[in-house]
Design goal:
Number of helices: 10
Order of helices and strands: EHHEEEHEEEHHHEEEEHHHH
Shape: globular
Number of domains: 2
Distance between the termini: 54 Å
CATH architecture of the largest domain: Alpha-Beta Complex
Number of strands: 11
CATH class of the largest domain: Alpha Beta
Strand content: 15-25%
Strand order of the largest sheet: 1-2-3-4-6-5
Amino acid sequence: MTIEMLWEQDDPDAVLRDRFGFASAEAVADWVTSAVERQWGLRVGSPERVVMSDRNALAWVRRGDDRFLLKWSVAPDRFERLTFAAELTAWLGTLGLPVSAPVPTLAGEAQVTSAGISMGLQRVIDGGHLDVDDADQVRAAGATLARLHDALRECPLRSSRPEVLSAPAPLTEQIAGWVTSDPSTLSPEARDVLGQLLERAPADLPPVQIVQGDYRAANILCAGTAVVGVLDFEELRLDHRIGELARSAVMLGTLFRDWEPVSESVRQQFLDGYQSVRALTDEELHWWPVLVLWYSLALVPPGDDPDGWGRAATEVLEHTAR
């Protein structure tokens, strides 16, 4: 069994002990197999792999030819969100959408909390992470996001956990607030262009709705040209559809330790795929370049920039200014 970090550089054995309370690999393996049998009634083999990130962990297990993924968290402040995300994902699965739906527990729960740990079980989906160099996959990812948005707009669970879904500030206020914070990476030219775009941006947009929250290559599985799995709804929130579409377009190629921007052509392919299912309104189309520029600028790191976000933001700025 391998034990590793998803993206952090910390020592995994120390994290396993200090964050999750397991003295050894054998201890976490025993807990995983016991938890799966106790909560789901499944006898599985020892985990093949355990991956940790922050206070969340994942373990891959098998039962014959069936493969499962146990996800658990020891962050109590996230338990309500995790339960809502699991229930939402289960509902999306009933609609036939390509999500990693939870396996119900013996008690019929999508997510269960026991002894200070929130956990859920999913079936492993065969597929590879979205390849942004494959135009067909990128367009399929855009189309899938549109279908998810259509479903989430009608989600009957929205009112069940209001504490999870707080309404965001208007887009103009969000961007103006970011500019006012005076980021060290924001050039005077970018500030001017963004300000001019905001002055012309329409106030009327379709209402906010539930969105996936982290729609990018790390959470999109493809087989051939089809999207077969959308993972990790834990960052779901209320937002405008165009907000998630633009943010996802900018971050589409990011994985766990590969964090690089995509080209304008990839963003356009993604937008074309989305609009093949659901055409944007005139107001949303007006907001598209504003949001793409804002997210591009906001992702430029201070100091070292090995992945080239500064260069990419400059290209977006030049394209937008034209």
